[in-house]
Structure formats: C-alpha cells, structure tokens
Amino acid sequence: MAPGPGGPHPPVRHLTVLYDARCPLCLHLRRWLERQRRLVPLSFVPAASEEARSRFPGLDHAGTLDEITVVGDRGQVYRGTSAWIVCLWALAEYRPTAHRLSTPAGRPLARATVLAAAKYRSLTAKPCGAGDGACAVPGPEG
Fold first, then answer.
1. CA–CA separation, 73 and 115 (whole Å)
2. Rounded Cα–Cα distance for residues 100 and 93 (Å)
3. pLDDT string in tens for the chain (142-residue length)
C-alpha cells in the first residue's frame, strides 16, 4: 500500500472493542471473539462505562451504545460496518474474510449483516433507562 498524504500508516498493534454490556447479542459476540486465535490483541470495554470514558474522553459515548465502536492503539476509530470488519481482520481465521468484506463488492454484504444484527439487537436487548436513567447490565453468564 502506498503511503498516504501524511506518510505511511503505522501498524495496528492493539484494538479495544467497545460493546453494549446489556445486549445479549453483544455479549455472545464478545465471548466468540475471545475464543478466536488473534493476530492483533483485542480488549473489551463496556460502551459508555467509566473505563471507556476515562480511556477515550474524545469519543461520543452515547453513540458507542448505538453501534459497535473499535479503537486502535494509535487513536483510529472504527464504527458500525468498519468496526466489524476490523474485528474480523484481527482474527487469524477470518482475516481473508475481512479483506473480502472491505472491497466494494463485499462491503454491501457486510453492511447488510450489521443491519440484520442491529435489528436482532433492538428486539432482544432491554431498553436502557426505562425512564430512570439506569441500565440493566447482565452478569458474566449473559
């Protein structure tokens, strides 16, 4: 890859996945990602948590509850479809799939998958707040 206007892009050495800790689908996907062999280390932080706010003060934390957000070790921010693709890219078995999904031909499929997951999530995750501003966060067993 040719260097961009700002010079060569530094390699991504670590990714932090911000996930909705009250969403059963998000918890399932987090556990799935944790079981995979990784080429790039992943860490997981509940979206909009105190830890997330402390580590990434410049992010729109309300937005991180609306769509998956992944932050690279050099400050790269990936949201939605790009976040899912970069998660797959970090996995040994799925890196070729991530490359295919990042192409103009593959991106619509990746986007459709993300939209389907978002619809499923909206049907299964408990709404945050219920008028009192508190979120029901499930325990480690989901």
1. 27
2. 13
3. 344 455 566 789 999 999 999 888 888 889 999 999 999 999 999 999 999 999 999 999 999 988 889 999 999 999 988 999 999 999 999 999 999 888 888 777 777 776 666 665 556 666 554 433 334 433 333 3
Query: Do the beta carbons of residue 101 and residue 86 sit within 8 Å?
Result: no
Residues 11/126, Cβ–Cβ less than 8 Å:
no
Residue 138 CA to residue 21 CA, distance in Å, equals 7
Identity at 35, one-letter amino acid code: R
Tell me, rounded to whole angstroms, the distance of Cα 77 from its chain centroid. 10
Tokens, residue 38: 């990784």
CA distances from 22 to 11, 30, 50, 54, 104 (A): 32, 12, 15, 20, 33
* 94 and 36 Cβ atoms separated by less than 8 Å: yes
Q: Which residue has the tokens 């970069």?
A: 86
